[in-house]
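RECORD TYPE: inverse folding
INPUT: structure tokens
STRUCTURE:
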């Protein structure tokens, strides 16, 4: 049974395998994203977090998912083009996965059931904050803006 997020391998947006162990000693914000959601403008805030904190060790891991209202219907190529063209995204995008239901990706099974802060994915843009040891330290609701002061303070404390 996995003991941290480092035990998983996922596919990047170009469908190449990526071991999450490459993020050891980084603070992570794992987010399920969608291009046609009322919360899609959060891409801008996620990019701002990346711009400010990447040099200090924050990594944003975005997982497109079509589980809520069909709000991520595109292919990986379409998703990447949208994120780049609309929001200038430079943080890490991964291949589209399922974050709930019978076909849930194993990473999201871990995040929602087996991590230290489990809970069902409520909607697009739910966030999991992960410390430098690969431990989930918070499960953050979808409507929490990435630039929320409290969230930024939590990230800053983990980066110290």
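DESIGNED SEQUENCE:
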């Amino acid at each position: 049974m996995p003991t941290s997020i480092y035990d998983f391998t996922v596919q990047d947006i170009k469908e190449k395998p990526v071991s999450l162990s490459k993020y050891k000693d980084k603070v992570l914000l794992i987010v399920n994203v969608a291009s046609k959601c009322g919360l899609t403008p959060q891409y801008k805030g996620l990019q701002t977090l990346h711009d400010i904190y990447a040099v200090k060790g924050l990594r944003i891991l975005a997982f497109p998912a079509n589980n809520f209202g069909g709000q991520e219907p595109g292919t990986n190529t379409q998703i990447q083009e949208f994120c780049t063209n609309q929001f200038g995204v430079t943080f890490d995008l991964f291949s589209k996965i399922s974050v709930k239901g019978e076909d849930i990706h194993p990473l999201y099974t871990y995040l929602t059931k087996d991590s230290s802060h489990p809970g069902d994915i409520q909607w697009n843009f739910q966030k999991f904050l992960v410390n430098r040891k690969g431990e989930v330290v918070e499960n953050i609701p979808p409507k929490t803006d990435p630039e929320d002061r409290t969230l930024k303070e939590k990230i800053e404390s983990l980066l110290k």
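NOTES: The two ends are 30 Å apart (CA to CA).
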